[in-house]
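The material for today's practical consists of a large collection of protein records. An example says more than a description, so a record of this kind follows:
***
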Amino acid sequence: MGNAESNAYRNHLSRFLPEEQSDVDGVFDILSGSSGSAAAKNGKAMKKTVTLEALKAYMREPLPEQMTVRLYNGMRSIDLTGKSSAPSDHIAKEQFVIFMSNLLKGNADEKITIIMRMISTTEGPVKGKEIQEFTEDLIKSVVHVLSYRKELKGWNLENTRDSASGIKALSSQLLSELKLADGTKAVSPQLMEMNFDRSVIEDWVYRVPQISAFLSVVIRQGLRVLHSLPDQTKDIVNLVPGCKGIKGRIVSLFDIPSIIYINSHLPAELQHKWRLLFSSKLHGESFSQLCAHIVNKGPCIVILKDVDGFIFGGFASHSWEVKPQFQGDNRCFLFSVFPSLAVYTYTGYNDHYMYLNHGQQTMPNGLGMGGQHDYFGLWVDSDYGKGHSKAKPRCTTYNSPQLSAKEDFTLDALEVWAVGDMPESAETKGKKSILDVDPEAQALLEMTGKSRHSEGLREPLEDDDEDN
């Protein structure tokens, strides 16, 4: 290795703290152990290298094989000679270190050569179909390795919706961010056969943080390298939020890819924990029960499925309160999970972010987000089971399309998840009663001069330590 090359190698090495360097060295030594001993038997003083077979053997369980091959192709793409000769089948220590340095510590420009080779082993532009296959492999590998390493933080593949459709939906969502050289987005049907050059992929990697975050998770957890060291960014640490309150009792309407995607759109301080507040499967199909479980519990995610199988919902940035006025702020958003995965944020057109009303004669009673009275982007009626999603052509508040299969839909299932830490008000108030949140019942009691004895109706607070 010449001086210029050894200097470049040393620069990459210097990005790692001493304990990180020893971690990288340790993994390389394990991977190269078999090829090194073979060289010793042949009496050759060969440098240790890593073969595809060694990588496959090491990562047989943690990663799907096709992702192991992609990682290997990425390592091979690092040219140590500067002569662009055909890459060797053996990965040298320098290639391994530079691969780690660029993908875990580098910018989009440093990552791009490796990612291009992970997408396709042939030089030049890559096809949309190849990018789609790479993206699906990447998401599938993230779900697989986090499940295998037991890093799903209380979620698992049994208490969530099947991930197969979620992987395709998240892949389609990320691919929709591909921009052509003229700045326009590629249209889906034509995208598969279009060619995308290096600059377009580099721009995509720069703008879509999930690609780098997912690669980091696959490398750290797949190779078991640098997975417990403190340089991990928040987008890795909070990639999957902690899950509380599901306790194997239900299968959530969310799948793992949609949890990852929706969580990434929450305010950063709310991304570390989700806690189940209400499930129609657990708590019954009752609007009073829904109100009793979600009022004054802090920011929440509402997700529902209609009888046609469409899954959608919204993020409420403030505690729900029963009152005839709109609430919330511009951090609220609507989203779709199935048949497509997407997030729709506020437009600035109005402030009709979230609405919850019950037991009033003159105002609509139900839970709504976006749009206006009787024309909500998302509406669950207090006559439980009915709802609507009206958007011709788009919801004024969030620019969302119709989220349900039919404009007026019938509800199949509904869940509400509190996100972030429980607000102090909910902790100090302790157990809540339906009378605390039902203004009609409250008013009746006050009119008759009766005191509020409803302890028997109070809900026990969930133990915050469950489902660790």
In short: The chain is about 40% helix and 15% strand. Residues 35-45, 443-448, 450-468 have pLDDT under 50 and may be disordered. The radius of gyration is 26 Å.
